[in-house]
């Protein structure tokens, strides 16, 4: 029974991320549109866009190699594997022992690298520019994610993410500590940068001189573009889910209970939807920072993550 419950949790996490990611994007667009006084296209619009793209003929630029063709599928595949590892619904799954912090961050980095190589493979000025900017951001974001989650791993004594979440469920006051507050601030900024949101990047712009993510995928069309868009939406949903699992872990199943597992998707959807609405509302008030100010912003988040590690080590060492 425990094995069946664990496999059901893994399948549920993957299905929730794949099917719910476009809905999350549509929800965030709708919230932003309403706050700006517009009607909005509806929550299901990303699925309509994907259906339209899947019906089109794939177009491959002349001179591109395997990196360009493999990148969309690799981006989606790495995110699916990460979705199976991150404890969104349950901490007791058959793959929980492999859900190490470093493995999850490496999967995100692999997807980012695949898109950067695809941008370089096109040989265009914008593709190379976007790839260069993306790798610059990634070089600052990945260490921040590692350190911010590592600060939470010190009290748990392990870098295994399900174990961190399970340990945090037993000590909820830990999130109000200085280390927890610093970690959540650092990880929130890292999520914004990793997913290309304002103030680091503007996902709705097509002004070439300011694009980061969009500049790398300008040459994609048809089903390949649908995969790239789905991969980006899945990364956003998964990172918001990781943020909610680490800092608002209530509702995640920890034992062999079908009732707890049945309630977990609803609670996870509510938490991610709230985070998405807050992010969309913040984007209405924020402005995109200049590209040369982005490293300063990310360096500040890295400093917060470093301080959270120091505070966590001091508090747990003192206790």
Brief account:
This protein is mostly helical and 319 residues long.
Supply the key terms:
319 residues, 0% strand, globular
Notes on the structure:
This protein is mainly α. The radius of gyration is 19 Å and the shape is globular. The N and C termini lie far apart (about 40 Å). The model has no long low-confidence stretch (mean pLDDT about 90).
Number of helices: 11
**How much strand content do the residues show?**
under 5%
End-to-end span in angstroms?
A: 39 Å
Shape field: globular
Q: What topology does this entry show?
A:
Elements: H1 2-35, H2 45-54, H3 66-85, H4 101-121, H5 125-156, H6 161-170, H7 178-194, H8 213-216, H9 222-247, H10 258-285, H11 294-318
């Amino acid at each position: 029974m425990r094995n069946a419950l664990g496999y059901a949790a893994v399948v549920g996490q993957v299905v929730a991320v794949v099917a719910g990611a476009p809905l999350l994007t549509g929800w965030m667009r709708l919230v932003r549109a309403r706050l700006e006084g517009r009607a909005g296209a509806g929550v299901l619009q990303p699925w309509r866009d994907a259906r339209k793209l899947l019906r089109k003929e794939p177009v491959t630029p002349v001179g591109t190699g395997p990196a360009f063709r493999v990148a969309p599928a690799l981006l989606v595949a790495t995110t699916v594997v990460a979705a199976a590892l991150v404890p969104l619904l349950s901490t007791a799954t058959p793959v929980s022992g492999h859900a190490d912090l470093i493995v999850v961050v490496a999967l995100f980095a692999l997807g980012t690298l695949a898109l950067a190589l695809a941008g370089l493979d096109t040989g265009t000025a914008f593709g190379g520019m976007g790839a260069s900017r993306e790798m610059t951001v990634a070089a600052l974001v990945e260490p921040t994610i590692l350190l911010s989650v590592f600060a939470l791993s010190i009290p748990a004594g392990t870098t295994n993410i399900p174990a961190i979440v399970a340990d945090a469920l037993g000590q909820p006051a830990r999130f109000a500590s200085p280390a927890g507050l610093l970690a959540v601030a650092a990880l929130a900024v890292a999520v914004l940068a990793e997913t290309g949101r304002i103030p680091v990047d503007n996902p709705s712009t097509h002004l070439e001189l300011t694009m980061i993510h969009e500049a790398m995928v300008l040459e994609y069309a048809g089903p390949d573009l649908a995969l790239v868009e789905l991969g980006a939406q899945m990364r956003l949903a998964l990172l918001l889910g990781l943020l909610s699992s680490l800092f608002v872990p209530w509702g995640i199943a920890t034992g062999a209970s079908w009732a707890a597992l049945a309630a977990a998707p609803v609670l996870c959807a509510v938490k991610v939807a709230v985070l998405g609405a807050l992010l969309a509302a913040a984007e209405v008030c924020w402005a995109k920072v200049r590209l040369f100010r982005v490293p300063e912003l990310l360096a500040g988040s890295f400093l917060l993550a470093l301080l959270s590690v120091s505070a966590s080590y001091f508090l747990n060492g003192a206790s």
